[in-house]
From TrEMBL:
<keyword id="KW-0805">Transcription regulation</keyword>
<dbReference type="InterPro" id="IPR043135">
    <property type="entry name" value="Fur_C"/>
</dbReference>
<feature type="binding site">
    <location>
        <position position="96"/>
    </location>
    <ligand>
        <name>Zn(2+)</name>
    </ligand>
</feature>
<dbReference type="GO" id="GO:1900705">
    <property type="term" value="P:negative regulation of siderophore biosynthetic process"/>
</dbReference>
<dbReference type="GO" id="GO:0005829">
    <property type="term" value="C:cytosol"/>
</dbReference>
<dbReference type="InterPro" id="IPR036388">
    <property type="entry name" value="WH-like_DNA-bd_sf"/>
</dbReference>
<feature type="binding site">
    <location>
        <position position="108"/>
    </location>
    <ligand>
        <name>Fe cation</name>
    </ligand>
</feature>
<dbReference type="GO" id="GO:0000976">
    <property type="term" value="F:transcription cis-regulatory region binding"/>
</dbReference>
<dbReference type="GO" id="GO:0045892">
    <property type="term" value="P:negative regulation of DNA-templated transcription"/>
</dbReference>
<dbReference type="InterPro" id="IPR002481">
    <property type="entry name" value="FUR"/>
</dbReference>
<keyword id="KW-0862">Zinc</keyword>
<dbReference type="GO" id="GO:0008270">
    <property type="term" value="F:zinc ion binding"/>
</dbReference>
<feature type="binding site">
    <location>
        <position position="87"/>
    </location>
    <ligand>
        <name>Fe cation</name>
    </ligand>
</feature>
<keyword id="KW-0804">Transcription</keyword>
<feature type="binding site">
    <location>
        <position position="133"/>
    </location>
    <ligand>
        <name>Zn(2+)</name>
    </ligand>
</feature>
<keyword id="KW-0238">DNA-binding</keyword>
<comment type="similarity">
    <text>Belongs to the Fur family.</text>
</comment>
Amino acid sequence: MTDGNQALKKAGLKVTLPRVKILELMQGPENQHISAEELYKKLLDLGEEIGLATVYRVLNQFDDAGIVSRHHFESGKAVFELSSQHHHDHLVCLSCGKVIEFSDDVIERRQDEIAMKHNIKLTNHSLYLYGVCTNDECDHGEA
C-alpha cells in the first residue's frame, strides 16, 4: 500500500482514483500552494478525467481530514498545500503571487511571549507577510 493510500485510510477516507491522483499530484514540490482550478488543469494535462467539482469536493474532504491546509492569500482564491509536520510562515508577492515558505525561531519565540503576556495559550497560528518581489523574475503585474 502506498503512503498516499495509507494517509487516506488513516483519515477515514475511502481510497478512490480521484483522491489518489489528487494526492499524488499535490506531493510534487511544484504543486504546493495550488488552487483547485490549477490542480484540475494539471489533471487534464495528464489525461485524467476528473471533474472540477470532484477536485473541489476532494480538496474539501482533505482539508476536513487534515491532509491539506487551505490558505486564503490576497489573490482572493483559496490555495492548498499538504499539511506538514513542521510549522512555517509565508511571504507572498502581491504582483506575481509567488509564495515563499519560511521558519524563524525568533518570530516564533516572540509570538509565544506576546501570547503569554496576554494570558493566551496558543493552539495554532498563521503568519502571512505581503510585499512585492524586488527581483527581475517577478512579472510585476498590477498590485
